[in-house]
């Protein structure tokens, strides 16, 4: 399964409190969308304009409107902004399907760049009009190892009035990327290198809000977490069969869930670690499963530490190791059984602040999405 990770570097215009460039991403199993908006001017007004534009594009995406129509609608509204006192923003909008097929639309924004086989080149765009506004469009297919580069004009106009009449331009950016790649620069380091270069050619200043994003195609790292029995007992077999079809790391959270797994697969469960404390619950072993541990309690603990620095994890506890596995994964799938466990309604659970399974998993999922993960919740 292909995954499209993003590396973003951003710097605000010198003397401003906030950046007038804003980016948003949205991931589903079928589509990855990335939007970079550059609000007119700088500071708070530009920031608000960019947030408004990016949010509008993403919400129209979610409503099922085609990318072309979304971009035409937004560009048309920008035409009004040329005459009226309403926020104006340039934008680049990228949509990548699960197989790597991509389309990029740009409006008043620099050309997209493709990195393939270690070499960057400008993507040729076709232009069409939306009412009175001109939109650039290009498309293609991303293979594993390929990357798209999009940026705001703070990058391509760097150097303007500092010896470069039109700034470095897209061709200058391509030359710089190729220079860096030929010297072994890693993709994740490239945005910061580009930012430093734009500052350097502008006498050590950021003359404009400056953002560069690299969208890299690679094989995904996947983890699937099975927790809770299905609400319909006769579905146990289907529940387990589906779980075993998922590639990558497989984790089971819950003793009853583990018993169902053992029964349906006819495999023994063995105690691996009895656990030493409330913060270090027991762990079990079964052939073909990467981790088996407790359910609701461990899920609550994961939710509590998910935003902590992984460098502080000791990895002695399954809580910290499972948390680390989730943070390393690109795609996290939760298969959640909704059968009622009446023990979880005991007052002691509320006294300890332990939330129900489904509530906790939804909280974990939101945190993982904020960290750029593709999260899939499936309930049974």
Automatic annotation (TrEMBL):
Top-level division of the source organism's lineage: Bacteria
Residue ranges occupied by any PPM-type phosphatase domain in the UniProt entry: 33-216
Official protein name in the record: Stage II sporulation protein E (SpoIIE)
Native source species: Oxobacter pfennigii
